[in-house]
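Service request form, structural biology core

Requester: graduate student, group of Dr. S.
Request type: structure prediction, single chain
Budget code: on file
Notes: please return the result as structure tokens.

Sequence provided:
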Amino acid sequence: MSNLNNANILMDVIKNAKQDNIALKTPEGITLTYANVLNQINRINNQLQNIGVTPGDRIAMILPNAIETVICFISAASVGTAAPLNPGYKRDELEFYLDDTDAKVVIVPEDFDHSNLDFLNGDVNVATVVVTDEGEVSLKDVDDTFSSGVYASSDDVALVLHTSGTTSRPKRVPLKHSNLLSSISNIADTYNLNNSDVSLCVMPLFHVHGLVASLLSTLATSGTVVIPSGFNPLRMNQWISDFNVTWYTAVPTMHQTFVNRIKSQSKGEDAQINSELRFIRSCSSSLAPILMDDLESIFQVPVLEAYGMTEASHQMSSNPLPPSDRLPGSVGTPTGIEIAIMDEEGNLLENHELGEVVIKGKNVIDAYEDNPEANSTAFTNGWFRTGDQGVIDDNGYLSLTGRLKELINRSGEKISPREIDEALMDHPNVAEAVAFGAPSSVHGEEPSAAVVLSEEVSEQELISFVREKLANFKCPRRIYIVESIPRTATGKIQRRLVAEELASS
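Core staff response, request fulfilled:
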């Protein structure tokens, strides 16, 4: 039932679909068939080409979760390279990402504050996307007559994203059409997706989780994707019921918030909800077994924990559907790729031996873009090193035990502590700064930091200062003002050591 046969680029997924099927819906009442979506993609293709876009050109998108984001994303990937950005980014962040991406076009919504792009020169075209009440999408004041008709190929980069690093600025991850199509196929096969499935997309469409799992894997099987403006625990039940949703995927924090809402409404009684759901998926950070039990008890469907990352075009492993076993605390078995455990010297380990999780497959990138230093450490003998520590059992189930890297994982959002360090160091009264993840019962981890001051300034003043420079989810919830920052015997700062010492003091 897949649309992936003979698909070379993402637009082929829409072309090969059952054209009369419903592709996209919104809670506001917009309904688009695959035929309508394809027509709109072609319109945006023409408009982008008429402003000079050719394959390989980077098209940044600073858009909310909405149908226009879907249309613009598939079009941008088909005639150039899509580069979606978090609409919550502040001016300094946008300046870094747009410069690093070398964007030729930036697509923004009608209500966008253009002062956030005042650093752009005349070589970058800023296009405003408009959408009617009926869901017709176009670029404002751009000619939509037929242009070159030149499209990307399967080996061209469809999507460029950034992944955070602990000791460097974010790394560019170039995902080819072939990478994405492989991942989409793996996800569709894992969950037996078909044209009767309805996915509720509550994940952001500037990350692979939302783009690849929620959106593209459903479209690849002629299913329907419901796109609200974002996650809302107060409305989840209504959406699941109104649209006959058959599955959704989210990070554990969203699941927990949803469960808490259901429990509060049940007034202490055991809640059970009848729905068309056939499974619930969780990914991007660890799912507590008790939360898995709560979800399964409430909805009477299997909850499947998966493992994904940007460099693998999202999914690498997943717990399977029944009748196969799902293992609480495990991220399941490989889904269309190879997974192994490697030691520091590059030797592959046996089952039950602890080491670094490594992967290889058609969905995995060949290299980071313009980053030989990162590539030299990320790839060993054809394997990509994930930076995660784990162990594989005799049945092939992978369990993650920690991270070798020091990224802060806040509800699945990977945050570079280096970015927070640099934002704090921009304050004239800060002499030293080190950011780290602190445990959080709600988000898994919260950004925190320790600073040594050169002149007096309060914790709240520093937090407010950082909020002007970084998106809210990256801002430290606590900033510890200390006399000195703990170091190892060799003088190096270890973020985990700082976190442990502050926690014990």
